[in-house]
Write a structure and sequence with these properties.
Mean pLDDT: 95
Largest sheet: 4 strands, parallel
Helix content: 55-70%
Strand content: 5-15%
Order of helices and strands: EHEHHHHHEHEHHH
Length: 182
């Protein structure tokens, strides 16, 4: 069975990678879910604001884990490039907010027909506009829990940590209650 690829954007990566390591390119569950980033995430992490807030991102083990990208054929690369241009034009005229990298993630999601994990509400709105799947970090954690990849204790610890550092995903409480009813 082939992998069920899922793209992880910057905010989701930063929320998960320290606790669930290695996060990327490690198949889990019956569907062989496998998480990937785009090379542009590494470029975003070069920003000093990330280095100061998340100094662990430059540890060798995390840098090495971020070298795994989805394999994309030449024809798909061309389609992604065209789709990205169209998505970026749409962002500039109809839905300001998403970044160029966000548009690129959406273009990959469209052309590769794979979901993207993000807690960025503008990016989710963009995904809806292009009828592609965007899931929250908590939705990904639900998949991981159902696949036996993580335990509920890790999820509650993560949510507590996010609250502690003030990095709370949008709709955290409502999504948590919906996805992890007691």
């Amino acid at each position: 069975m082939s992998q069920s690829k899922i793209l992880v954007d910057t905010n989701a990566y930063l929320r998960l990678a320290k606790t669930i390591h290695p996060l990327l390119s490690t198949p889990f569950g019956e569907k062989k879910y496998c998480l990937y980033i785009l090379p542009e995430l590494n470029k975003e992490l070069a920003n000093a604001k990330f280095e100061n807030k998340f100094p662990w991102i430059w540890d060798v083990e995390y840098k090495e884990n971020r070298q795994h990208f989805p394999s994309i054929g030449t024809k798909q690369k061309k389609q992604i490039k065209q789709t990205n241009e169209y998505v970026w034009e749409y962002v500039q005229t109809d839905i300001p907010g998403p970044s160029r990298t966000d548009a690129l993630y959406i273009a990959h999601s469209i052309e590769l027909q794979i979901p993207v994990v993000t807690d960025d509400q503008d990016m989710k709105e963009l995904a809806i506009s292009f009828d592609t799947e965007a899931m929250s970090t908590l939705e990904l954690l639900r998949i991981m829990l159902d696949s036996g990849h993580i335990k509920m204790k890790a999820i509650t610890s993560l949510c507590s940590y996010w609250r502690y550092i003030g990095d709370i995903p949008a709709n955290l409480d409502a999504d948590f209650a919906r996805l992890f009813p007691t």
